[in-house]
Design a protein that fits this description.
By secondary structure, the protein is mainly α. It has a domain at 21-62. The chain contains three helices and no strands. The protein starts with 20 loop residues before the first helix and ends with a helix. It comes from Eikenella corrodens.
Length: 65
């Protein structure tokens, strides 16, 4: 897989990785297991999983870093 920028979209037609809703669910479960953070509801997932940068910022916020 080619490298992509941290602000590249994770989902949708412009995404270089082309993730779908099943991928979002798997990422959500993995984040909860690994970091103890929860993304509750579609709106929260869409807000914080738009790209890697937003997702990393959300994890840092949840851990108070």
């Amino acid at each position: 897989m080619a490298a992509f920028a941290d602000d590249s979209p994770l989902f949708g037609p412009e995404s270089p990785v082309g993730l779908d809703s099943l991928d979002a669910l798997q990422i959500t479960v993995a984040l909860q297991a690994r970091y103890g953070v929860r993304l509750n509801g579609d709106r929260m997932v869409r807000k914080h999983m738009m790209n890697v940068r937003d997702l990393a910022a959300f994890i840092r916020e949840q851990h108070g870093a």
